[in-house]
Each structure stands twice: as structure tokens, then as C-alpha cells.
Amino acid sequence: MTTSTRPEPAAVSPIAAVPPLNTSRPRRSGRSSVGEPHPIPWVYVVLTGGLVLLVGPFLWMLLGSFRPDRELDVVPPSFLPQDPTLDNYRTLFTELDFVTYFVNTAVVAVAITLGNIVFCSMLGYALAKLTFPGKRVIFGLVLGTLMVPGIVIFVPLFVLVSNLGLVNTLPGLIFPFLAGPFGVFLMRQFMQSLPDELIHAARVDGAGEWRIFRSIILPLCKPALATLGILTFLTSWNMFLWPLVVAQSEERYTLPVALAIYAIGENKRDDGLLMAGSVVIILPVLAVFLVLQRHFVQGIAMTGIK
Amino acid sequence: MTTLTASTSESSTLRPSRRRPDRGRRREVVAGYLFALPFLALFAVFTVGPVVASFLMSFTDLTARDVRNPLSVEPVGLDNYAKLLSDDTFGQAAFNTAYFVVIGVPLTMGLALAVAVGLNSGITRLTTFFRVGYYLPVVTSIVAVAVVWRFLLQPDSGIVNTLLGYVGVEGPSWLRSETWAMPSLIAMSAWRNMGYLVVIFLAGLQTVPKEMHEAASIDGAGAWNRFRYITAPMLRPTLLFGGVVTMIGYLQFFEEPFVMTRGGPLDKTLSTAYYTYNQFGFGNYSYASAMAYVLFVVIAIVTFVQFRLLGDRD
Amino acid sequence: MRTWTTGWTRGATVAVLAAVALTGCGRDDGAATQDTKAKKVTSGKASGDITVWALGAEGEKLSEIAADFEAENPDSKVKVTVIPFDAAHDKIATAIAGGQTPDISLVGTTWLPEFAATGALDATPTDLIDPSRFFEGSWSTTDVDGTSYGAPWYTETRQIYYRKDLAEKAGVTPAEDWSQADLKTFAQGMQAKGGAKWGISLQPGGQGSWQSVMPFAWQQGAELVDGDAFTFNTTAMQEGLDYYASFFEEKLSPTDLSAEGALETGFINGEIGAFVSGPWHMGILRDQGGAGFEDKWAIAGMPTEESGTSFTGGGDLVVFKDSKNRDTAWKFVDFLTQEPQQQKLYELVGSLPAVQSTWESGELSTDPLLKSFGDQLQDAKSAPAVATWEQVAAPLDDAIEQVSLGKSDAKSALGSAEEKANGIGFGN
I want to staple C222 with a disulfide (CB 3.0 to 4.6 A). Which of A137, A144, B310, C236 is the partner? Predict the structure, then answer.
């Protein structure tokens, strides 16, 4: 404790909550339930400005998906589609075996996300809060592999997966990514901020380690878990090169691979189909984001045990 | 700080304190290993194995022509690494990568932190809308992003040069200029990757209990001081994480030059990762591995420095 | 023939790796143990299953053509898997590394030598497949060190698309056997009197620009290899590159066409007077040009100096050595190179057949634009059949970029490229 770099005056500890503060102060205007009390009006302005800049390409993609081929190649392009058409979407859903690809991508992404959430939070917790020999070595190893450029293990990994007989299978797409070092690093950092008193108190009360983890730690980690879920889902949903190489028959393709096949030819790219496909591919990722981002708002979760 | 140990020993005076630490200690160790097991098992097979294999590969002269009988390659010791030192293109790629990282990481982190703090500062309306908006570049396909940015940076009809034209500046051909290609890519990356960090920083900001802010503002602290003395320190593990992850990501930047400039003009936007990818494409597997591990060493050193600077707990 | 590394590094290496038990390893110093003699294929109907990897648009239509094969050979089944064109090279290379190759795959012509060098490809049984039926340039893409692997399926070559109406206005319509100087005059005329902003659009360096430059060098009699060395810096090469770069120097070609679709847009609205490309642009121009544009453009052959050579690429079908049904695989390849199937490929996809006799009937013999491609195919070359070509082409592309942008002269740029190329070698 004495070596901690965080300020830890007793008053901070959520357990020693400070009820008098809440009841005796009049509410200031504009206070939200989390974070700092004062919203500053110009913040809205700046953020909106930035937002316009950021949303531009997405809007472009969206609008582009409704353009016929002719329009997409015109330079400079007009902002709104002059001849909007649903053709791109029609091609997307009829010519491609959309359902199969969607299911494959979904199964892979969900499996990898859930796996990471479970395994990484477990190891992250162990590294952050438990003491055991070899802890630093393990963390070093995990962090180390995060620093190895991914491309270099590609071929050996394929040879391995091939020897395990997992080529052209969904497990072959999933297993190599179930244990992601990124998730461990993320969870460890977050969990470090959790107060040790909670754990000590629970142990004193006779709770088992797993119970502590499941009932106390995990609920407090909602923002971190949500973050990990969002980011893992995003990367696994959009994976391209690995599914391409592992799948040997079209039934195992994922959406990004299928889109590349149909939209990118040797000499010509079907930009309309590409845009439409990209929009459709984004939607589940956005959905997951919308669902999980609620958990960024911790609200009163931090203000006490159970 | 001493209050905590005091409280624990207080509550434990009711039980014999000598036996407890041993049993507790062992239980903790067992728990530690059990918690670590599932991850480590998968990790050992699917990550550590291939990493070791590719590392060994860098000490041979394996090329694509040898893959059907890999055991017949010759060990060449440090030849691949020595070759890297005299490889001009590698030198250029290394410089480009350093350039990208030194400017790009602080830029992206600064922007993301500002946005996250802004989003967290009690904006009650449209919070979700903002969050989704800032996250959109992250999910938008790189192809769409490339089309738009190329259009923005068009020398004649692009928006950037048009706007510059209004103030009497003749904008260069951004992506084909040896001086301006890299800054253009840095801007594009900061724009695109900000969203990741905003998501992470937002989550981190949530762990700052509001009581602290309330207590501080009651004591008269203004917004900036509150940020400096409360938010920032509590955010340290998150900042470290964000910094390390961004640094690691940027040291391996690949997509942006790949879709925008193909490493040009004249290799001025060729990154180390892109060059490694090219070498893999050529079938020079062992040379590419050596390159990747040199990059790894750099990443490791930089990360270590970051850990030191931003103060890790363990 | 490999030479051992110098004494002390070798000793150190062995010491380091001894623990990893690699002392028993090492390549044979003698000749390659590869079996390059093609085995015969049995006669009679095909049987069993085969898997085929096909790329892009041709791949999608392959199932239709395969159905005909299955009808003729009822005991066999052909499973077609389409793979994306972009990443196909990576996928095939990785499949070879992991021992997961299909029976047949379509490959880009410039990839074939590099895959052949891995030993994964089966040599072509020339009793079954007759080389003389194909365009010489196309067949040469399957030939590696005297042995052929696979067979050409479709081909393409490059010619000059130009605005017929602007050329007439400027009075510079290309002649049948025009020279390089004529082409230059043509571009100047298009700009001065035709009203075009750019006389002709050429690729100013960048990946693959060697395909644009080499025709002009080949026309001067240049060759890319001689024996076992690359010859990038010969006088003929310099002449070809200088000629090419002069278009940029004299502002006849733009150095910056970074936007997607800018070329087609520019050509359609008359800003760009001409450009060099393959048969696929016919379809693109028809789609985008809209009504009435068809009459405004035409195609001219490459200019002639010592020869009127153009570049040829396309797709080759290869059979993998690990194939479990080699017989049927080769029979299928043979089937695809028969005239009716080549004709069908053209009708379904628009790709040009690699088999010469297909050009003697149907649209390929009557349509003047197509016919001009057919004629050009008689005099077209490809990259040298060297396993390291993709890697060696990169310094060459760099040299082209430098000279095109005026940053260097042809002699020093090509000299440096040649040095780098020979440093890389043929990869044996």
C-alpha cells in the first residue's frame, strides 16, 4: 500500500461512503449521474464539429451503397445519389449465400468474444489481484506476444492448424483467437484500480476465490468488460485473412471474405456492392456497440458492495 | 494507506492471526494458477508455439520454395539480421515507422483523451449519439475510408486544397508528395483510431468515483485542476494501457499505406510492417521473420520505457 | 548450388542450434531432386472428385462450364470454390505451406514460376495438352526452365484506347504499323489540336508499372534476362524507358491520377486523349460512357520499332502434385482448353481465350476491336519465368517512378535496379 502511486485517502474509499455530502448539498444544475458535475456548453460545439468530420466517410459509404455503378466512378462524385437504386443490396442478398456467411461470421465472432471475456478476465484478475509465483513471467509473456507483429506467426499457425485437422472448420477459425493477449492486458489494467479492501473483506467473510471473482469483481468491471466485448467483437467480425486461408470451401466463408470475392475482380471493383456489403457488415458491430456501451455508465455500481 | 492494514488487522483480531496467512496464501496461489489455466493452455498451443517456430525460422534461410520440405533448410545464424542492417529499404521503412509513431501516438491519444473527457463531462443529451459517432470511423471499412480520404486530398478538386485555396495557399498533391504523404497518413490514422481510445478512456473515466470530484469541487478546485490532480492520476493504468496499445499498434501500422499509397511515393510511406508483408509475399519467410523480430525488440523496448514512465504497480 | 557460409559463423550457428537438433538438416548440394518429368495421363472417361479453386469473375462462371464436364464424365464430380482475386496469391502460398492444396487452381501468370519453384505443381503432360494450340506468349507463362506446369486458360494483352473523334479533329489517326515517334506525334496532336488536356495517360511508376513500360522496351529489342542474370540496364532498355518518361517530361501524360475512376471519367469527358489497357476496359467504357459514346473511341495496336510487342498476362490453370486424382484433374484442364469451352468462357465472362483456334470463329473473328486484340496477341511477351520476379520487379518499378517523375536519368536508375535484381537472383 505504501508504494501505491494512487492517492488513497480514506475518504475516497467507496465503502466509507460520504452520505452527508449527498443529502445536505443542493443539487447543482446540469449535474449528470456520473463524472464531473459541470457540462460546459462549448464542449457540445467542439464535439459536434468533430463528429461531423468523423461521420463523413460512413455517410459516404451509406449513400454510396445506393448508387448504381455508373455514378460511383464519376469524379468528383456528387453528394447525394442521383439515381438511387437497391440493386447493390439485391445482389448482396440473392447472389451471395448470405445466410451461410452471416451465420459463420456470427458464430466465430460471438465465440471469440465470449471466450476472451471469460478467459482474459480470469487471467487479468489473477495478474492484478492474486499473488502467485511466476506472475510476472506470465504477464511478460502475454505482453510480449502482443508485441510480436501478427504477420509473422501466420504461416506457422496455419501449419499447426492444418496438422490438428482444423482446416476448413469453424473451430479452426475460433481456437487460435480465444486467448487474446490484448484482453488480458486490458482487464489487468482495469482491475488494478479496484480497491483491494473489497477482496480482503470478502475473504474475511469466508467467500471462496471464484465467488469473489464472479460476484464482486466482475460486476465492478462492467465498463472494462463492455470495452473488451466491443473491441473483440469488432476485430473478430471483420477478420479477413485468416478465414480466407482456413476456409477451403465456400460453406465456411465469412462475410468479409465473401464480399471480397464478389466485389473485387481482377481489373474492376464493384464499388456499389462493396459499399452495400460494408454497410451490412457494420450493422451487427454497431448493434453490439449500442447494446454494450450502456455499461460505460457505471452509475451507482461503485458505491458499495452488494 | 495505513488505515487499510489497520482495518484488516482489526477485524482479524477475532480470529487466530497466525494460521490464516498460510492457508490464505496457498489458496491464493492455487486460485491464481486455476484462473490462469484456461487462457494459458490455449495461448501456449496457438500463440507461443507459432511464435517460437517463427523465431527459429529467422535463423535459417527458409523461403517459400522450401515449405514442402522444411527440414532441409540451412541454419544461417545471424545472416538475416545482418542483411537487414545493410538493407536501404529497411532503413527507410524504419525511419518512416519512427516518424509515424512519434507524431501519431501523442496526437491520437491527446485527441481521444480530450474527446473522452468531453463526453464524460456530464453531457446528458445525445451521449449515445456522440459515442456512436466517434466510434464510427473505427468500424467503417478501410476501403470506404480510403475512397473518401483520397477524394478529400485530391490535388485539384479535393476539399482540403479548395479550402486552402480560399486563403491563398496552393495545396500540394498530398499523397504523391514525398514531404506530405506521411503527414496525410498520420492525420488519417489519428482520425480513424481515435475511436478505440475514446472507448477505452471513457471506460477508465468511469472508475473515477464522482464523490471525489464532488469533494474537490466543494473544496474549490476548478475543472482543469480537478482533471490534473484527480482524474489523471486515477486514469494512469488506463492511460498506460491506451499508450502501450496505441504505440504497439502504430509501430505495426500497415493498412493506411497499403490502401492509400502502396508505400509510395518512392517508399516514403513504407512501414516496417508493410515491408515485412512484402517480404512474406515474395516468399522470403526467414528474412521476413528476422525483420518482424527486430520490430518486436523495438516495440518491447518502447513498451518497457512506457511502463517505467507511467509507473506500473507490480 | 548453395555455398556454405564462412567458417566461424557456421561454427557459431551450429553451436547455437545444436540443442535444437538441427545438425541432421541441410539442403542437398547436388541437383534438385524434383521429379520434373511429366507422367502420362490415362485415356478414357474421368472419374472421382476434384476440387478447383477459381478466382474472380471467371471463377464464378466456372461451375457452369464444369457442369458440362460432369455430363460428359458421369463418374466424376467437380467442386468449384471461388476465392477473392486480391488475396488469392497469399491463400495459395499458405495452402502450399500447410499442405492443403486443391487439385487444380487458377493462378495469375506472373505467379506461376514462383509456385513452380516450391515443387508443388505437377508438370504438364504434353501428350495430352499440345503447346502449339496456344498463343506463344501465353504458353511461355507456363514454362519454367524448360518444363511446363499447367496450361493457359484465358489471356489478355494491352493496346492503346484512344478518342477517335478527337484524333480526327487533330488529324492524327493512328496507322496500322505506326512507330514510337508516330505515337508521340499523336499525343502532341491530341493536346494541341484535339482539345485534350492530356495526350495519353500512362502509369508514372508504382506497382506493376513495368507492364506499361516493357512493351516500349521490347519494341526496341530489349530483354529482361540474359542467361542467368537480369539485364535491366541495356541500351535498348534505356531507350524504352527514356521514351516512356518523355511523355511525362513533355507534359503529355499526367503524373497524378490518384482518384479512383479518374481515368475513365477523364477519357469520357475528353480530358484524356488515350490510355493503355487490356480488353476489360471495353466493357467499362460501354457501361460508363452511356449512349452514343461507343462511336467516339477506338483501339490501336502497339507501335512498331524492331517489333510491335505488347505485354500479355492472363490466367493459367495448374494441377498440384499432391492431388489425389491427378488423372481427372488433367482431363478437366484439357477439357477447359478445348475450343467449345474457350468460346463459352468468352461468352460468359468476356475473357479472351488462350487457344488460338477459338479466334477463328464467332465474334472473336468478326468484331474489329476484338480482332485487334487477337492480332496483338501474336506479338506479346510476359515476365521472365523466374521465381523471384515479383520481388525483382519492385526495384524496377522504383526506377520507372524515379525516371518518370524526373528524379533520375534512365541509366543510373536502371543500373541501380539491375544491381538490386541480380543481388536477389533467380531464387534457385
Answer: C236
Provide ipTM, 2 decimals: 0.79
Rounding to the nearest 10 degrees, give the CA dihedral for residues C240, C244, C250, C255: -150
- How far apart, in whole angstroms, are the C-alpha atoms of residue C52 and residue B187? 44
Residue ranges per structural domain of chain B:
2-57, 83-310
Query: What is the grid cell recorded at A57?
Result: 466517410
Tell the residue number behind the cell numbers 510492417, with chain if given.
Answer: B273
Q: Is residue A72 part of a domain?
A: no
Residue C227, C-beta contacts closer than 8 angstroms, at least 6 positions apart: none
Residues 114-133 of B with CB under 8 A from A: 115, 118-124, 128, 130-133
Nearest 5°: the CA angle B31, B36, B39 is 150
* Residue of B141, B202, B253, B312 for testing the chain A interface, max A β-carbons within 10 Å: B141
Q: Given this structure, which CATH class describes domain B83-310?
A: mainly alpha
Query: Over the stretch C69-95, which tens digit does the pLDDT of each residue have?
Result: 999 999 999 999 988 887 888 899 989
Question: Dihedral angle at the C-alpha atoms of C164, C165, C169, C173, nearest 10 degrees?
Answer: 10
* B positions 206-225 inside 8 Å of A (CB): 206-215, 217-218, 223
**C-alpha to C-alpha distance for A145 and A264, rounded to whole angstroms:** 33
**What is the rounded CA–CA span in Å between residue B187 and residue B182?**
9
Per-residue pLDDT tens digits for B37-69: 999 999 999 999 999 999 998 998 888 888 777
The C-alpha cell that represents A248 in the structure block:
477451403
How many structural domains compose chain A?
1
Which among B75, B176, B264 has CB closest to C17? B75
- Compute CA distances A195 → A199, A203, B209, C336, whole Å: 8, 14, 12, 71
